[in-house]
Amino acid sequence: MIQPDFDTLYDALLARDPGYDGRAFVCVASTGIFCRLTCPARKPKRENCTFYETVYECMEAGFRPCKRCRPTTPQASSDPVVKSMVEALEKHPGYRWGEPDIVRMGFDPSTVRRAFKRHFGMTFLEMARQRRLQEGFTALADGGKVIDAQLTAGFASASAFRDAASKVLGQAPGTFSSAPLLFTDWIPTQLGPMLAVADNRHLHLLEFMDRKALPAEFKNLNKVAKGQIGFGRTTITDQIQRELDRYFAGQCGQFETPVALHGSEFTRDVWRSLQKIPAGTTKTYSDLAKELGRPSAVRAIARANGANQIALVIPCHRVIGADGGLTGYGGGLWRKQKLIELEVAYKAAS
């Protein structure tokens, strides 16, 4: 089924049109929440809205379910298995769910898995884990202590929360500075949540949270900051979130957020060259080597490209292979393809 256009969905949101209930969901960048289109809450500004067809897409983009309209409850609760499990999750959002718990409720884990995949595109256990971890990061960014974040995220122990967070950050939350120079927060996007590290002058890191190199990048940046990285937001975090919202909404392909470049002089030169590639345009490593006056440095340029830790703003995704094919991208080739497709519209409009 073809999804209606943005204007149609936004009008349906304003009208609380029940015809779209369960067919589309709205993700609100200013709150990090996703809702049914019939949600009774105050309606968000259109520039803060993104629409998805499934709960899975909303949660994968880093948004949390609204507590008023409860978008994770299927329309009319027609599936008794899903209804029971969602109600249990709502009653015990802090519980660390496992398959034995599903069995104790009288359900077959494989049946529950298939039912949730059918309704939401994700399993029950995946839904429960995402909610817990996102709530914990939000609590930390709001200035809460690790124990507060652990309880908010619903982890039964501090070690469980530390382990889950450490897989993303590369270090336990309790080791973060209480008087930081750099502040860490997450930003929801259409292609998944991103981690941003900034001070009040520059953006130092921006990566998709499932990037395998993120823990190592975070560790290196923490050395540069002499251990003074903590949780929270800055004016730069707010600025890059606004620009990312406009970027994914197809409104602007350029970023004005000032960035701090942590690398050798050669690496910084490569990154500056990347920033000059217009949205909707691609170049090869050979093209960059010639522009830098280093035609034989193709491999070194490829390494510098791969070392980029400020995704999108430094658009390493705009570099392709000599044969025109997609090459490696830390955020995943599927994201690289999506980004290039998105930026074609910018080129057409220029």
From TrEMBL:
* Alphabetized PROSITE patterns for the sequence: HTH_ARAC_FAMILY_2, MGMT
Residue ranges occupied by any HTH araC/xylS-type domain in the UniProt entry:
105-179
Name its species: Roseibium denhamense
Q: What InterPro entries has UniProt attached to this entry?
A: Ada-like_dom_sf (IPR035451), Ada_DNA_repair_Zn-bd (IPR004026), Bifunct_regulatory_prot_Ada (IPR016221), HTH_AraC (IPR018060), MethylDNA_cys_MeTrfase_AS (IPR001497), MethylDNA_cys_MeTrfase_DNA-bd (IPR014048), MethylDNA_cys_MeTrfase_DNAb (IPR036217), MGMT_N_sf (IPR036631)
Can you state which reaction this protein catalyses? a 4-O-methyl-thymidine in DNA + L-cysteinyl-[protein] = a thymidine in DNA + S-methyl-L-cysteinyl-[protein]; a 6-O-methyl-2'-deoxyguanosine in DNA + L-cysteinyl-[protein] = S-methyl-L-cysteinyl-[protein] + a 2'-deoxyguanosine in DNA
Domain of life, per lineage: Bacteria
Give any Pfam family that matches: HTH_18
Which spans are transmembrane here?
A: none
Q: Name one GO biological process term.
A: methylation
Q: Which UniProt keywords apply?
A: Activator, DNA damage, DNA repair, Methyltransferase, Transferase
Q: Name one GO molecular function term.
A: methyltransferase activity
- What PANTHER family has UniProt attached to this entry? METHYLATED-DNA--PROTEIN-CYSTEINE METHYLTRANSFERASE
- Note the SUPFAM superfamilies from the entry: Ada DNA repair protein, N-terminal domain (N-Ada 10) (SSF57884), Methylated DNA-protein cysteine methyltransferase domain (SSF53155), Methylated DNA-protein cysteine methyltransferase, C-terminal domain (SSF46767)
Task: From the Swiss-Prot or TrEMBL record, give the protein name.
Answer: AraC family transcriptional regulator, regulatory protein of adaptative response / methylated-DNA-[protein]-cysteine methyltransferase
